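Session log. Operator J.P. requested a structure for one protein chain; no other inputs attached. Running the standard single-chain path with token output.
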Amino acid sequence: MFVLACGLVLSLLAWHMTARRTDEEASRSFQQASQHITRLVEERMLRALDLVAGFRGLFSVHRHVSRAEFREHFNSLHLPERFPGVIAIQYAPLVPAAEKAAFEAQVRADTSLDPHGYPDYAIHPAGERDFYIPVLYNEPMAGNEAAFGHDNTAEPSRRRAMERTRDTGEPIASPPLTLLQGAAGFVIRHAVYRRDAPLWTEAQRRAAFLGQVSGVFRTTDLLSSLLEEHLKGYRIRVEDRGDAREGQGPAALLFDSQAAHASPASLLGAPQRLEAPLTVAGRVWVVEVSRPATLPHLAPLPVAVLLSGVALTLVVRWLLLGMARHSDRTAEIAARLAHEATHDALTGLPNRLLLEQRLKEALETAKQDQTRLALLFIDLDRFKAINDTLGHEAGDVVLRQVALRLRGALRPTDTVARLGGDEFVVLLSVPTGNLWRGVADRILALITQPMTYGEHRLSVGASLGAALYPEHGTDAAALLRHADDSMYAAKRGASLATAPPAPSSRAG
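Structure written below.
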């Protein structure tokens, strides 16, 4: 009964500790996902700002941009395929009240793209104003007809955004609004000024103001495409909190990934939420990521630990009947834990701890037998570029492939270890001559062979440095330091040395 009680207590303790660890890992993953989602939203908005700035650049380079040139630039970007969420790109000039009738007549007679012109063109909504900012260029026209001729000064929030971009010269986003096209979204406006005009002061910018370029975006299409498969378990909400100059105001919803099917209230309590503010074209956006409330003690792994502990405790009662089998299982668990403690989880290679043990043993043997050792330090080239552009999954594929190739290039008596990141170390027993040079060349040749990742063909290189025992040191620290220095010398462009003391090599 004492053994049974102790077993149950230990099982409960292991269950609690595993649940706590599971909850910590889930929270860490949640924080990382929240940061990743915030970066995705920020990157997408920077692309939107760049898009509007690119069209504004047309008017900065040319004194006059025709309707045909504006359309040609729009079509060349293939925006519907490359940039989901873009409804329209528009240009609206400044039209003084005295020139309104002449301006409308000129647009109606414009046959540059349509042989019939635009006989129904009129500035709308109707009303007398001191000046107008009507949409003149409207791409694509199909689906955006309601915006053609719309005056951006007719509605207060649109006029405020126009005035702010006019007075500051910066791109300005509107608050969330119902677009003329019938969708919920926002507009980014960027002022266009007369070429060669001074723009140092607000008065100068007002005097040089010619109109504005606008990007019209449907928020749902713009942001929903960012949700990668592994992020769909989270709820993402983006709120507009007002003008950045005036401080945060009432929240206005821009995007909700689960708006159509909001989760019912949970008996487990409120969901966990993380918020991150962004400044987007003069407005404060808050990205909120949430996950459902959970009971970590009921997660699969803690429950499995608890059940395993209870089952193991019951089995212990019959310890005398199964001593041999129990001993074998204990030894297997110990061996697996020892393996995990001394090997890299991603590649299965020995880690730094096991490398240091083997290097120490090899040095003792080499001193007794008066033989030589070689230590090769390898650092992958272009790995960071693959990791940044294709993601960590592609980087993991590259590391596993390199590990397999290194194993294939070595003898059973040699050791290859991963120190972390894209750094590998090879320990060679070199009884005579410069055997290490042939091994180094074979390693570099294997690493530089192309790899495939999906539809991508990946190519990495490597910088290699070597340290020889006893020429470059008689202890592990000295040899590792010398090999590391040699590798960095190779990375700076040094070629493979023909003799000690600085053997190094590079392939790429």
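Operator note: Confidence is low (pLDDT under 50) at residues 494-508.
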